[in-house]
Amino acid sequence: MAETVAQRLSSAGAANALELRGVSRMFGALAALSDITMTVRPGERRAVLGSNGAGKTTLFNCITGDFLPTSGTIRLFGEDVTAFPAYERIRRGLRRTYQISLLFGGLTVLDNIYLACRGVSRGRFSLIRPRRNDALMQAAEELLTAVHLTPARDTLVAELSYGQQRQLEIALALAGAPRFILFDEPAAGLSPAERRDLIDILSGLPEHIGYIIIEHDMDVALRVSERVTMMHNGRIFKEGSPEEIEEDPEVQALYLGGAHG
C-alpha cells in the first residue's frame, strides 16, 4: 500500500497536526469531557463517532476555542493553543463546519466563497471591488470546482438544496489554505446520492489537509477515514482502523445494535 502523507510526515519527524493531553471540560458538576488524550498526524483523516451526548461536539468546541478546556492541553502543529481564542487558531490553519448551516442566503454561491477567501486574507478590510483577475476570485472559482458546485455558481444560496448548502460549507472551510479541518456531521439530512457526492468531495481533498469528521452515518464515516475514535460518556471508548471498529463486538453492541450491515 502506498505511504500516506501523514505517514511520510510522521516518519520525517514533523509535529503532529493535533495533540490533546488530558483534556477535560466541566459544565458545573457535569463532566462533558473526561481526560481526552488523542494524537492526529499531519494529513490524517480521523472519524470521531459516538451516540448523542458522547461529547463529540464539546470536543470540537474545545479544539476550536469556542470553549476552553477545564484542564489539559491542546497543541496544533506543535504549538500550545490551549488558551488561544478561536481567531488565533484560524490564523494557524484550523477550520470548522457546523451542524447548522451558517451562510449568506441572499448572496450567490460564488459570492459566499469569495467572502470566505477574503475573510482570511490580509486585504479583508479593503473596500476596493475585485477585478476579474483577482487572485481571491480565482481561488473561489477553484473551490467551486472542488466541491462540485460549478453549475450553481450564480445561484442564490437560499435557492440551493440542503445538500448543496452542505457542499458550500465545505468550500468555505477550504478557503485560505487550511491545514486541518473539523467536519461536524456533514452528511446529516443528505439523500443517498448527496452522500455519495460528499464521499467523493472528502476523498478528493488535497492529501496534506487532515481532518476529523463527526458523523452518525457509519457508512460515510468509515469510508472517508483511516482511523476511528469512538466516544462514550465524554471519554474515549475505542480507537482503531475502520475495519477494526466495524468488527468490534463491543462497538456493535453499544452503537450499532448488533452487526453492521
TrEMBL record:
Family annotation (CDD domains): ABC_Mj1267_LivG_branched
Keyword terms of this UniProt record: ATP-binding, Nucleotide-binding, Transport
Q: Where is the ABC transporter domain?
A: 18-258
Q: Does the keyword Transport apply?
A: yes
Pfam families given for it? ABC_tran (PF00005)
| GO CC entries | plasma membrane
The entry lists its GO molecular-function terms as: ATP binding; ATP hydrolysis activity; L-isoleucine transmembrane transporter activity; L-phenylalanine transmembrane transporter activity; L-valine transmembrane transporter activity
A GO BP annotation: L-alanine transport
Name-wise, this protein is ABC transporter ATP-binding protein
| Organism whose genome encodes this protein | Microbaculum marinisediminis
Taxonomic lineage from the root:
Bacteria, Pseudomonadati, Pseudomonadota, Alphaproteobacteria, Hyphomicrobiales
